[in-house]
Amino acid sequence: MSMMSKLFITLVLVQIIHLDLSAQNVADSTMEKVKMERSFYESLGKSYLPDSSISVTETAISGVKAFWFNQSRLSQKHIIIYLHGGVYVLGSINTYRAMVSHLAKALNSPILYVEYSLAPEHPFPAANDEILKVYSELKKKYPGYTFTIIGDSAGGGLAITLVYNCIESKIELPNSLALISPWINLKCDNSSYVTKQLLDPILSKDFLYSHALLYAPNKIKDADPSELKFKTFPPVFLLVGTDEVLNDDSRNFYAYIKPVQEKSRFKEYKDQKHVWPVSAIHSKESQEAMKDVKEFLQLK
Does a structural domain hold residue 192? Predict the structure, then answer.
């Protein structure tokens, strides 16, 4: 082999090694950023104290970590499954324990908080598959019970996808859904992503889309709840703030689903930001939202 050939091969190998290292550095830097975001998101759970009267018990359903709130109320034969937000990348019981405890108290119902696997370590469809398994297992374990899915932000998108997956798997649908500030359009191309940006201090189009890519790299359309088509759907209540970029996600989904399910409901909460009950459960608007959900679900 000539000296020139050896030099060429060496240069190619150096470039390949450099590309591999660069890719690794990008991955490492991304995960470092994700860890920082997760830490900050967990700190939101310290905004106020949990309701001390509500018991919380860790469990596992079909191998998925979950937490029962108000489990003693299971005799009422109605179970609420809570799917948390966090752009499919963030969120844990530490973020949501306080808020869900107050929700369980307000609704006087048992709530199962599902701690599904997060991207980018577990990309689409891992979370969707886990949630379907949890729901299916609960349906088997509690025959004759009614089921409500409550989801906020990305959890709202997961709830809509659960309905679709139930239809595809021929599993009985949930009886109702309540979605708080749901993130439904992963393409992030609704008008409010632009028109509401100056009012929204929490989310932006760039932030959302970058995390959609972490959740479903090269599969945005497959993972996008707004791409799903329905001929049947449970009664759904969409709650959204006037001051959030996701406003049109709720508004547009309501316009689509209302002809499919006439019992669907849409309500805007004036001057409210993204998932306002997480940051201020005792505010007038948060209390109103919980009261509205309770009335929609016709709970005693």
Answer: yes
